Amino acid sequence: MKLIELNKIFDIQYGNQFDSYKLDTDENSDINFVTRSNQNLGVGRKVSQYNDIEPFPEGLITVALGGSVLSTFIQLGKFYTGQNIKILTPKYDMNFNEKVYYCLAIERNKFRYSACGREANITLHALLIPDKVPKEFLNIEINTINISKESLIKNSHTLQPDKWKSFEYDSLFKIKKGKRLTKEYFISGKTPFIGSIDSNNGYRDLIGQEPIHEGNTITVNYNGSVGEAFYQPVPFWASDDVNVLYPKYKFNKYLAMFILPLIRIEKYRFNYGRKWEMERMKKSTIKLPVDKSGNPDWQYMENYIKSLPYSSSL
To answer: Is the domain of 188 the same as that of 265?
Structure first.
């Protein structure tokens, strides 16, 4: 047995590249919507047919190029795909066991991407896989996986940012400054010291000074790595280059995971030495999903995060 490139065995093409919000959920439909998840064969929900676009037929293989990168599944029903997914069509008649084997072979390459955050868009075609399936694998009895309705319901929360509303930071958070403490005054201890860095959740060191800020808050760098934001679960000391956001509403780690990326996408506004100082931050805005009354829909945001793969590990 030798290794050959993936495109020698499969024709490879991009999927539909649909944004999820463009498709209507329909629990009675026979069309699956495949995402970059590593659960439920990648299927997020059932959807209605989109315009006159025919779905892909069952039996093809989908590969996530980002997200849960190289999550690879045989699709057991008709389907559309979201962004960053490629579809593999065997170049020859291939039975179910053979397809399962190649799904496993592709996934064995995950280590090449997940450790460094790379995506597989450009390199998927050149992945090396066995040129044939071992005879003993062909004789294994493989039970197909049923896609559970409960799982589809759980993952039916879809983002529709065009319907979100802008809120000033000052209306959502009480914003406080960190306090200067130079390294020469550090003493050994267990209090997290949060600096204006872009990694390790902002942890620069552990110090013996008493915390000056409460846990269950968000830190945002206004200087240094401006716009980097982290959830702080325990009390801490923040440097004077960090602003601390105290939510004015009931807060938890799931809401933090929803909000942090929305804060970070504003980083580009503060490049080239422009700082995100407290007064500027108070008047800055953030777009959030809203309920029927036009208020932030906190429950929706929490449910969305809980519906994602690995959310139970937070």
So the answer is: yes
What number of residues does the chain have?
314
The residues that bridge with 90 in the sheet, in sequence order, are 10
Mean of all residue pLDDT scores within the chain = 87
Question: Which of residues 125, 147, 169 is at a domain's end?
Answer: 147
Looking at residue 95, its pLDDT comes to: 92
Do residues 32 and 121 both lie within one domain?
A: yes
Tally of structural domains, the chain: 2
Q: Are 110 and 70 in contact (CB under 8 A)?
A: yes
Q: pTM for the full model?
A: 0.53
Give the tens place of pLDDT for each residue, 133-190.
Answer: 988 788 777 665 554 444 444 444 556 787 899 999 999 999 999 999 999 999 999 9
Query: Is residue 310 packed enough to be buried (19+ CB in 10 Å), middle (13-18) or exposed (0-12)?
Result: exposed
> Does residue 154 form part of some domain?
no
Cα angle value 99/109/3 (rounded, 5°): 65
Residue type, 140: I
At 272 the pLDDT is: 53
Are 182 and 289 in a shared domain? yes
Task: Tell me the torsion sign for CA atoms 222, 282, 171, 20.
Answer: negative
The alpha carbon dihedral of 275, 277, 279, 282 has a sign of positive
Print the SS3 string covering 28-85: CCCEEEECCCCCHHHEEEEECCCCCCCCECCCCEEEECCCCCCCEEECCCEEEECCCE
What is the Cα–Cα distance from 312 to 131, expressed in whole angstroms?
Answer: 38
Cβ 9 vs Cβ 90: under 8 Å: yes
Residue found by looking up tokens 């597989």 in the block: 120
Q: How many CA atoms lie within 13 A of 20 on its CB side?
A: 18
Q: Quote the DSSP letter at residue 145.
A: P
Q: Which domain holds residue 135?
A: 3-147
Report how far residue 286's alpha carbon sits from residue 207's, in angstroms, rounded to the nearest whole number: 33
